[in-house]
Specification:
Elements (H helix, E strand, L loop, with lengths): L4 E10 L2 E11 L2 E6 L6 H8 L7 E6 L14 E4 L11 H10 L5 H14 L15 H13 L5 E5 L7 H14 L5 E5 L3 H7 L2 E6 L2 E7 H7 L5 E6 L3 H8 L5 E8 L2 E6 L2 H14 L6 E3 L5 H9 L1
Parallel strand pairs: 3-7, 3-8, 5-6, 6-7
Antiparallel strand pairs: 1-2, 1-4, 8-9, 10-12, 10-13, 11-12
Helix pairs in contact: 2-3, 3-4
């Protein structure tokens, strides 16, 4: 698959601070979560991709074009920035219409696209409301709407769910997931890891301005062979199951939490998840709950930044 965004040998310095250090990275069609602690270089990377900054070394290409030097590259990009910068006296539909017109669309089509984008973020009923009168959650939705109104092939979302309520957040997660279809390249930067995990299984992790990891969450976690998995199991006879598990080669340790709960340390998560139900069935028992606190994005992130 051809990469939509190509970043080759890119470094960016601010005085003596090296915000990005020899980054080589590609983003293809689909959704990718962009992760990293504060100050890791995520926002700098997004500003380079959107042409707001020029790299000190290396090159950035979006659809084969230089976003800093080629205005045509901007037509392919939709950006939801982290911070607000609105024309507060405008209504939501007026604001989005004005931005769509900057992409070369006529007045009527721009207004139609603005209204359609507001429908997608569930703001059609308040599209005529002045931006200065909108809540933080509404303003966040307007930012997302303006990023997608011109139907870009590249969508960059920097903390897109900030300030939204739980119900609205669920709807926006579904919207972002839908943006990843049809060949679009979507990059989502967020500190809320479970929300990223709800959108995609593909992540890129940057730390200290350098690429730390990229790929599928499960595959990246499996590569950390020095970090075995813990699995907590609830079952009627925890001690009996623990005794059976000690014979398994992949089991490092078994500990009893209480009479009905045990915790397993294993080097092979998939093998353990297949084996546990079979062992329980052979004992005439059923597992009431089985979870692994080490197999999600939050645990992977914690291991990689520690």
């Amino acid at each position: 698959m051809t990469a939509t965004i190509e970043i080759r040998g890119v470094s960016k310095l601010f005085g003596l601070v090296r915000a990005l250090d020899e980054i080589d990275l590609e983003f293809e069609a689909g959704i990718t979560g962009l992760l990293g602690p504060n100050g890791s270089g995520k926002s700098t990377l997004l500003k380079l991709v959107t042409g707001q900054l020029r790299p000190d070394t290396g090159e950035v290409r979006v659809g084969g074009r230089d976003p800093f030097a080629d205005p045509q590259a901007m037509t392919a990009i939709g950006l939801c920035p982290e911070h607000d910068k609105f024309y507060e006296e405008l209504s939501a539909v007026e604001f989005i219409t004005a931005l769509v017109r900057l992409h070369g669309f006529g007045a009527r089509e721009s207004a139609e696209r603005a209204r359609a984008a507001l429908v997608r973020v569930d703001l059609e009923r308040v599209g005529g409301k002045r931006l200065r009168e909108m809540s933080r959650g509404m303003r966040q939705r307007v930012k997302i709407a303006q990023a997608i109104a011109h139907d870009p092939s590249v969508v960059l979302l920097d903390e897109p769910l900030t300030g939204t309520d739980p119900v609205g957040r669920a709807g926006l997660i579904e919207l972002v997931a839908s943006l990843g279809t049809g060949g679009r390249t979507v990059v989502v930067s967020s500190h809320v890891l479970h929300e990223i995990e709800a959108m995609t299984s593909q992540v890129v992790l940057i730390r200290y301005g350098r690429l730390r990891a990229r790929g599928n969450i499960r595959r990246l976690r499996a590569l950390l062979t020095d970090r075995p998995y813990r699995i907590r199991v609830e079952i009627a006879d925890a001690r009996g199951l623990a005794t059976r598990l000690l014979a398994s080669a992949h089991v490092r340790a078994v500990s009893l939490v209480d009479a009905n709960t045990l915790e397993i340390t294993t080097t092979a998560l998939d093998t353990a998840c297949d084996e546990l139900p079979r062992l329980a069935e052979s004992m005439g028992l059923s597992i009431t709950k089985m979870v692994s606190p080490d197999a999600d994005l939050e645990s992977l992130y914690g291991y990689l930044v520690s």
